[in-house]
Amino acid sequence: MHLHHDTEPHGHHGAASGGGRPPVRPDGTRRALRVGLGGPVGSGKTATVAALCGALRDELSLAVVTNDIYTREDAEFLLREGVLAPERISAVETGACPHTAIRDDISANLEAVEDLEDANGPLDLVLVESGGDNLTATFSRGLVDAQIFVIDVAGGDDVPRKGGPGITTADLLVVNKTDLAPYVGADLARMAADARLRRGGLPVVLQSLRAPDGVREVAAWVGARRAAWVAHP
User: Fold this and answer.
1) Cα-Cα-Cα-Cα dihedral of 91, 96, 102, 104, to 10°?
2) If you average pLDDT over residues 91-109, what whole number do you get?
């Protein structure tokens, strides 16, 4: 089950240029599209990143930056899963509230992104995963060009109704772990309706990564953003 509205880039969101940095490489081609993934602890951000890498790595040259407060656990999960070569995965230890390093002082993340691009040649896509945070977590548009916000049904079917910047303003909202709905008493139709009301037409995907090709819709959305990023000056 999914609720999928307009999946095209929204206005200036597709044209963010990395904190004033030009969106082109020295050779005149566009730099990698940067997509941030945020959301509460346990919502399935890292699993979604892993699934996206598996779905997109054959068609796009990509890399990942993970954020944890004091550990490299998310990066180590991706390394264990073998989703990308180790040199394409970088970990940032924020040492503070997770949103600090993605919104307030983005220097460590920008450095990690740029180091990955330097080390791995021209990249098409960099995924930047935030550490687990609450519903207020948003990425600086100086760091990413588009943001995905991930929540899960086990957090309660009232979460979309509660809103918060992550839910209301992210370019894509993912309601994850829909397979758990019968076990936690979550009403998926209600979650979809509340999300539609809160987001004013911005797209929503209801997702279960346990389903075959469960990340397909999110991967298609990312692919469309990448195509638009390349096509538009």
Assistant:
1) -150
2) 85
